[in-house]
Amino acid sequence: MRIIFTVMWLSLLVTNVNASNGPCPFTALIDQGETLIMCPESSEFLSTGPSFDSYQWYRQSALTLETELIAGETNNIIEISALSATYFFYWCEVSLDGCTDISNLIFIDSYVFVPTTVQTETTSICEGESTVFQIIGTVGSYEWYRDGSPLGIDSPTLEVAQAGTYTASVFPVLCPGLEINSGVGTELVVHPTPMPVIFFNDVSNEVCLEASASSIEWFYENSPIIGANTMCIDLVGDGNYIATVLDEFGCRGESDVLMVTNVHEAYSHVQVFPNPCVNAVNIQVENPQLVRLVDVCGQEIKSENIDYSSHWDVSNLTSGIYFLLIGDRSFKLIKVH
After folding, report:
1. Is 304 a residue whose pLDDT tops 70?
2. Tally of structural domains, the chain
3. Residue 276: is the preceding peptide bond cis (ω within 30°)?
4. Percentage of the chain lying above the pLDDT 70 cut
5. Do 32 and 94 belong together in one domain?
6. Does 103 lie in the same domain as 49?
7. Is 94 within 8 Å of 28 (Cβ atoms)?
8. What is the model's pTM?
9. Cα atoms in the 13 Å half-sphere on the side-chain side of 261
10. CATH number (domain holding residue 271)
11. What confidence score (pLDDT) does residue 138 get?
């Protein structure tokens, strides 16, 4: 609402217009008081007594102090529109039996409301997530719309998880019949959950993803495989494999479980378990073998001639990938905490 400065303007106005043919035995009175504050797009009626011979309405701009005779307004009632008639002083000049008097002044102003806007931290979410829209603007009652349809939610905030274009309206407390709509909508995009597919490549003896992703993480028997973040990975052993991925929108998806069995039939006489391991690993061979443990740089950490089986303590190893060299074959060993 505008700040009203009336003292100086009232004095000037009275000086300009309060001249009559002497004291009249009557008083012209506008009964709405000294100030009238209107709702935008509304209208009000000002009136004086109906018992005068003639009427003429005037107004003076509160900004420029320019006085205007309002053409055609010669009745005791005048309609004032908030769209074009605010921030003016109004009065009526009346005559009766040859005596002219000027009514009291009334200042017309209108409420000014902040435009309605909708704010949110993001307009792009993954399936299963939500975000919050918030109305910034005037206090009042509220209505939210999705794709033009009202949602019936009277709140300045709205938690949304469904794709669509959202708008909001505010109905101010001071002018509940006025609707201030946000106008251009805010579109929420919901990205579907990626559905990675994994398969066993019997040529390379690997487990692979069918399609690439921004980020990949592999699991063996529900435990993460340290450092396994490529489209294809070497087999840890027989068991269940899962891949989780992040797509270009940051949405996470998980593959179905892939059970891999009998993939080392040619090497079935060698057993390494558990793998991944924490504190110890068991090694079983069908025939006596030299078994060597090396890191990813090929540096030997431990070696032993094993007749049939051995139990190795690996608790002092740091987490990571190692290799067991058994004869001319290599087996990946994963150490975890």
Report:
1. yes
2. 4
3. yes
4. 89
5. yes
6. yes
7. yes
8. 0.63
9. 2
10. 2.60.40.3080
11. 87
* DSSP code, position 266: G
Report the chain's C-alpha Rg in angstroms. Answer: 42
User: Residue 207: pLDDT above 70?
Assistant: yes
Alpha-carbon gap, residue 162 to 34, rounded angstroms: 52
Counting Cβ atoms within 10 Å, is residue 87 exposed (0-12), middle (13-18) or buried (19+)?
middle
Task: Report pLDDT for 211.
Answer: 82
Look at residue 195 and give its three-state secondary structure.
coil
Provide the pairing of β-strand 186-191 with 232-234. unpaired
Per-residue confidence band for 6, with pLDDT thresholds at 50, 70 and 90: very low
Residues 159 and 224 in one domain: no
Q: Are 332 and 234 a contacting pair, CB within 8 Å?
A: yes
Q: Which residues have a Cβ under 8 Å from the Cβ of 249 and sit 6 or more positions away? A: 124, 126, 191
**Mean per-residue pLDDT, 272-288:** 88
CATH code of the domain covering residue 156:
2.60.40.10
239: in domain: yes
User: What are 256's two structure tokens?
Assistant: 């179905």
Q: By residue range, what is the domain housing residue 233? A: 198-260
Query: Which 3 state secondary structure label does DSSP give 8?
Result: helix
Res. 22 pLDDT band, cuts 50 70 90: low
Direct distance between the N- and C-terminal alpha carbons of the chain, in angstroms, rounded to an integer: 67
